[in-house]
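Practice problem: predict the structure.
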Amino acid sequence: MKLLLSLLLIVSSAVFSGPKVHNFKLKNLDNRTTSYEDVKGEELTVIDFWATWCKPCIKSIPKFVDMYDEFESQGVQFVGISVDGPRNLSKVKPFAKSLGIDYPVLLDTDNNVMARLRVQAVPTLLIVNSEDEVVYFHEGYTPGEEKMIEAEIKKLLNE
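Answer:
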């Protein structure tokens, strides 16, 4: 019976632990290849998948810029990943500048990283812990949800 309980505990913890973010490399806004390892945070990494044509993204990004300014000193790094294709690539840098993004922005033009992390829509936000495990996954955005995301970051920092 103890063996069965032990096995159940091991299996359930394996099932409930989040997927891992394995190191990946993408171009940044200056066309330099940048790895996830280079930009991830010490405590948490907030990855925001977005596109220039995405209306909810336009509303959410300024909220994330504010959160980045608030949490950067606590080891939280925000990383924007644009999933714009080659046709819209020239719009990404001016778009990021117009929204005041002051954290790293990477370009997933072939949606390879998006697929590897099982992201199916934009905006999608992932929070990754220092062990590279996805501990929070949020798809979509409606005004006010930034408060929920901010509360989640605070909770994870206090764990």
